[in-house]
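Q: What structure does this chain adopt?
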Amino acid sequence: MSKILILGGGFGGLYCAKRLQKIKLNSFDIELISDNNYFVFQPLLPEVASGTISASDAVTPIRQMLDAVKFRNAEVNIIDLKKKRVGLTQGFRKRQHYVSYDHLIIALGQESNVKIIPGLENNSMTMKNLKDAYNIRNHIIQCLELADVTKDFELKKRLLSFVIIGGGFSGVETSGELKEMTDRLLKYYKNIDKSEIRFYIIELSNQLLPEFDKKMGSYILNTFKKQKINVRLNTGLKEVTSLKVYLSNKESIATNTVISTIGSTVSDLIRKSDLPLKNQKIVTNEFLEVINNSNVWALGDCALVPYNPNDKSKNSPPTAQFAVKQAKIVAKNIVLKTLNRNLRKFNYRSKGSLASLGSKIGIGKIYSIRVKGLFAWIIWRTFYLSFLPSIPTKIRVLVGWILEFFIPRNAVLTDTVKKNSFEYKNYKKNDVVFTEGMIADGFYIVQSGKFINSYKKTEDGKVFNKIYNKGDHFGSRVILQGGRRTGTITALEDSEVLKIDLESFKLMASNLPALKRYFSDYLPKNFNNLKLKN
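A:
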């Protein structure tokens, strides 16, 4: 019996498994491996972030959809093409296992490439999965909560400024949904005026949604202007820090919220697997078989698939409708190859594109017909509803959409935004990390650059300055000895720190003998002579 192994539970992998499941040939043993046990309908993630639908409505259990296909919830870490096997870890202890195959289908998608811009990786959020959407929603509500009570004007301005990087489908739909969410929630925040909310879209090209023509691009721009969303076209992102974003037009925006929808790259797993790559994608032929690798197939976002027999330079765009069509062709070609018949070429004409701009406004092009406004928004929702892979999910989403018209938007902070135990933070010259009087939030280790700590509250009234260079650290005294910050830390040059959150640092310092000895010596030697006021 031939073993068909499918890697990935997205559009490509799931629909390929569903297609093979329908064929019901006894000669195939089909198994799908995914690190999640659910399918995420990614186009609905902006609606999850905005609270239009709940997180559970955007997902469908994979086992529920694949009765005749084996499913394994595991993380793939090795693709061994020579031995025709895949390595994976599974279970609580993450033990290594191997699964052999006769046919391998790679549908692993792509990962966010947040390393393309200095500081973007350390100081931004992405919109790629359910966790991202969940975190963005909680983060924005937390910003509104703090902005409603703070007396610090500069902090309030940062809290209410939201920057979305990228003017493609994800960036546009995220901007529209989140702007609508904040507008509808403002009635609960009496100390925030609507004019204080600032949304920005940063796009390198000369129009939003470059897939559409100029006329439609102008419509999108005018719609966002009416919604008070600031659009920066022909503008690149130069750098991101913990407090600001810096643009190619010399503009800087003070913000605590940066959402990146740009940059995709192949995963390290694929990069290390000896698969042929071009433009960070696996190269296939017109049959979706990987070049020079018999019985290895690739589809979806991770694959470079030619789709026009008359022009092999044209490759499939990374959209759901192309991935679904590719899945059907891969399934059929595996059967045809088993029967020693001619394979089918992938040839598909896009049915068009649709996007939501928020506030019940949409835009789209269906074949050659342009649609916009409320009508386009209705078509957009109908199209996405039809694409959902199971009837229970369709019902839940439809009910959620209907209730949206009658029930106020939920402002519940379902979970405080959990900071990473360890995270890198970036600061520009003259940025203030923290000021005296603040409560300790973590322990900082300088990775690059230079900082100055100014102590003003000394018993003799003298100001004492301490310089921190690469390898130095600050923040330990208040965490280990109690009290509040007694100094103000300022970056003397563009710098990066590794921040260890307060609880994690306390655990390390109290349980590692080497650290206990170090700080029992370091703290008295560096701070007793300062005679700081409590």
